[in-house]
Amino acid sequence: MMKNKILLGSVTLLSALMIAACGNGEKKATETTAAPTTEATTATPTTTAPTTTAGASSETKEVSLADTKRIGREDTGYVNVPKDWVEFKEIEGNNPQQYQYTADGYNVVTLTGYSKDQVKLGKNDTWGAELVANRLYTTYENNSEIAKIQGAKSKVIGIDAFVIQSLTKDGKYFFTWIFQKGDKVYTVAFDGDKSTLQKMFDLIEQTWGLDPKTPGK
Asked: Phi, psi (5° rounding) for residue 157?
C-alpha cells in the first residue's frame, strides 16, 4: 500500500467550503464538552458530534522548539515542524490555497487560510470558524475512508478553536483545527500516525501564528 494513498485534507477541504450548507441536515462539529483526548472516539458518530476540550489545561507545558523550523506562508499562517521535514506537493489535486509539509509522505501538516469571499455562503449562513467546522465535519463524516470521528474544542495560541478528530479505516489519524483570526478562518490539518500526532499536537497549538519568524505571534 502506498504511504500517500490518502491525504484527506487536500481533497475534501476546498470542496466542503465551496458547497452551501444543507440546512438542518448539517452536522455540528461541537456542542458539549467531555474529558480531554488525543484519539478519535470509538463510539458510533451521532447527528451532533460528541466533543472534548483539548489543550485547555493550565498544566499544559510549553513546547520545546529545539530541532524545529518555521514553515508556512503569509496567506496560511506559519507553524513549527521538526527540522527534517520537507515541503510537500501532491502530483494530483494540489490546492494552491494550501501549504503542506511532510516528514515522509505519510505524516503531513496542511495549512490553509480562507477569507469570506472565497467561500460559498447560504442565505442564513454566518461567516466564521463554526460554519467552516460544521461543513468540514459533515464532509469528513460522509467520507467513505473515515472510520471514526468526533468534534472537540481547544485553543490555538489562545484563540478558541474547533478540532475535528478522525481515524481512517486504514488506521491513519486525521485531525483538523479550525479557528478565526481577524476576518479570515484558518485551518491546520495533520494526517499520519499516532506517535507523530502526539509530537505535533502542541507544536500546532502553541506555535501557529502570522509572524514568519516568531512562534505563536
From this structure: 45, 45
According to the model, what pLDDT value does residue 94 have? 57
Region 31-51 average pLDDT: 34
Contact by Cβ (8 Å): 31, 46: no
CB of 205 closer than 8 Å to CB of 199? no
Q: Can you tell me the distance from the alpha carbon of 1 to that of 21, in angstroms, rounded to the nearest whole number?
A: 35
Q: What is the pLDDT of residues 135-161, one digit of tens each?
A: 999 999 999 999 999 999 999 999 999
Distances (CA, A) of 124 to 24, 132, 138: 11, 14, 18
Query: In sequence order, which residues have a C-beta less than 8 Å from that of residue 146 and are 6 or more positions away?
Result: 8, 140, 166, 167, 168, 169, 174
Closest by Cα among 86, 135, 143, 125 to 109: 86
